[in-house]
Amino acid sequence: MKRLLVIGMLVALATLTIGAGPASAQAPFYQGKTMTIAVGGGGAIDVSARIIANHLGKYIPGKPGIIVQTMPGGAHLLATNHAFSVAKPDGLTLLALNSAVGIAQLMKVEAVRFDLRKFGWLGSTGGDGVVVAIRTDLPYKTFDEFRKSGKELVAGTTGPGSNAHDIPLLLSEFAGAKFRLVSGYPANSDILLALERKEVDIWTATATSVKLAVDRGSVRAIVRNRVPYPGFEYLPVDEDLATGALGKTIMGVRSAPSAIGRAFAVTPGTPVDRVKMLQEAFAQAMKDPELLAEAAKAKVPFDYLSPETVAKNIAALVDQPPEIQKEMVKYIRFGK
Amino acid sequence: MLDALAESLFLILQLKTFMLMMLGMGLGFSVGLLPGIGGGATMALMMPFIFHMTPVEAFAFLLGMHSVVATTGDITSVLFGVPGEGACAATVLDGHPMAKRGQAGRALGAALMSSLVGALIGAAVLAVSIPVVRPLVLSFGSPELFMVTMMGIACITSLSGLGARGQLRGFSMGLFGLLLSTIGTERQSGMLRFDMGLMYLWEGLDLVPFMVGIFAVPEIVNLAVRGTAIAGERPNERLRSGVLEGIKDTFRHFWLVVRCSAIGVLVGILPGAGGGVAQWMAYAHAVQSATDATDRERFGKGDVRGVLGPGACNNSKEGGDLIPTVAFGVPGSGATAILLGAFIIMGLTPGPDMLTKHLSVTYSMVWTLVIANIITVALCLMTLNHLARLTYVRGGLIIPFVLLLIFLGSYTANKSIADLLVTAGCGLFGYFMMRFGWPRAPLVLGFVLGKLAETYLFISIARYGFEWLARPMVIVLFLLTLFVIALPYLQDRRKRRRRSTHAD
Amino acid sequence: MRINGRIAFSLLLIAMTAIAIVMALQWSFKAAFFPLVTAVPLLILATAQLMVDLIGRSPAEENTRSDLDFTADISPEIARRRTVAIFAWIAGFILLVFLLGFSLAIPIFVLTYLASQTDAGWWLKIALAAAAWGCFYGLFDRLLHLPFEAGRIQTWMGWG
Question: Which residue out of B435, B444, B452 would a mutagenesis test of the C interface target, given it has the greatest number of C Cβ atoms within 10 Å?
């Protein structure tokens, strides 16, 4: 009897503490609160989320604290699903998008439980182009040289769905390049190591990562996708190298996520005035000199994209006619 | 090189840097005790703070945290049978039985001291090999790495019981572990295998809930069944002398400790093969160092050598892990992958630069490993006796806390209730394994190695067809593998032959 | 009784392996290769083990490395009861977490376990439960900012 009493008291106490949440309505909504940025993995998206988390709070009335929460699972699908339907639409949860999930939505992957078009977009910290790189000790200095030689090169990839896989695959199919894909490397860094070991010849990754390798002298860039990156603008664009309209279109769709870049969103259903305020805050934060300094130090190219641009690019990616979808499935998968 | 060493020592000993290292150590200490929250996850959480630090400070902080985790992980392994870190699971096999026999102090002393020796050796190798390591790492291609995983799998014979049945069970569990590792997305084709329609299984079964379930839960059940304290009805060990005994053990078996440290460093250097593997190879090596069959039987029941081997190895591996990270930007483990992120934030590029322009930063990492480990072990040794006393607390009081430790720890793997279910399920499975005499070590070994083996095998074939089988290094490793498999039988034959000549 | 359990376990292993093989046969070569290469020998070995268990000598004569020492001085009756009990507590804890979230589940679990399994004083029990909750809150929530899902009941009642 006594035990039950104590347990009952404990439960009551706990309930009271949880129930009596912040009730004051005078202070700005974000006062004393903590925002969460959900991100599905590491890399430039994670770094960009952390940099935003460091500075966004300053521009939001109430100056909330912001933390980054990694939600690994399903190659960013879990985090995206979470931000779409599980998180409360109160503006306290943000999503740091990995735009590749747009391909998943396009491919109607079963685990997709979101619609990118419905998110409240705040803007993007910039897109990262994708660049194809070749080992420096190989004689080919441009893509054309290589294509004319008719030789075969080995491209290391992490698996279907990755940049390392899809871009060389599309170039093989539609641009006459002879690439032999060797898949299964656990991560980009393993491919780089294999490159140094002369196990593979070709590596494709985000422009930021490739730039680091180019600076080190291990690789030379030969092709890029439609999103230009400082230092790589002169490279031929893969879509221009494609020999047919189908190839061009598929490559374009494959490149669309790059154009969206590292976008941030709030859960659909968040009150409109809060979304507007967050959009403002985001735009201002992207002008903050400290933020830009941190980004420069981390070598992630920050370039503000407005919420309208983001929404437009997302629609362009996801709204594809069914014939294109049918063709795409032959060449592109959703994966890491 | 020497003046770079001296200069970086000076950098570490700056007050702010030193304080940051101590702070990191404090965090790493508490976190290391919790299974699941590895150094990796904590380091990721600490990332925001390093934005405002200089490179040396940042690495002192992060590495201070990281290098301590492997040491304290051993503590919970010994005391409760709960591996505090993925790489500390092997310590449970002999460490916890020692605690149950009332020798917790000795086990802890052995674990800590061997950890220190291992860490120092790892740091020394890191310092010395930095200039020459690139060609070494580059000579290990996918085929060679595949052979190394084969060698790891070969250790199963040493980890299983003797006799036909023991080996049968050991191999079965090894194969089962390999099979379990195939759950998830297959890398080459992107196909989902055995996912049962659950997104949770897309990346495969997570190591932490699996391992914690298999090792720790049966121990808890055992504790609940016995109804006594962990150390049972044994008389109070004279604790101070217990720890001292453990330290002496480290030096009694010094060459074993050194060899196991070497294993840790070598496996750490190889990119991809992580701490999960190294500890089992070290444990298998310790078993192989037994002189005969009766001696071998002592392992698994509380032989201090079974603690010394893995204890040394999982610390020396830290030094080894850093080598490919710093020299190539290829992380050797999850935690070093996070560390790589720190490099980028600091504006440093891993690679030749770290070995030339930023050599002092690299060496400051070496010093951090050395100093952090020395301080940790010293502090632990002073408090060990009190920790060992926990094994005398009534089981009923301890059980809920250890259960919390287990479940909170595994929750952090994927932050989902599914983690708890997996832990409980694996716990049930592990319990029955124990009941019916199926060895657990080969299961975990197979699980850890499976993905690596498959990956490297496929890459080797895709890239080289079948010519890779003729590469010199591959052949050498293959012969070594055969040797490792045969070793227990060879030892047995030798002993029997000696016995029969004696009888004449 | 123990013999039957042993056989049941081997059967379980065989069943799981067989299912795995059946599933794997439907996949492409690359995807099925590794699973089949491991599952087929496993099936053979597990079946061999089953044979051995059914017709072989008694377990006492085996030289198995069982790395746990189940003390023999508790009667099997009590042992079985306690085993079932502890698994029941584990299941109960998970259910608590599911329904109420970690924050509430932890102190409730600690308190109820200590209350029913030990005879420590009341204040000690409450103190320990509070300490457990405090550590959880301080380390996991405040310091590490780990996300903890709200329990089902809280979500249902709109509190989570």
Answer: B435
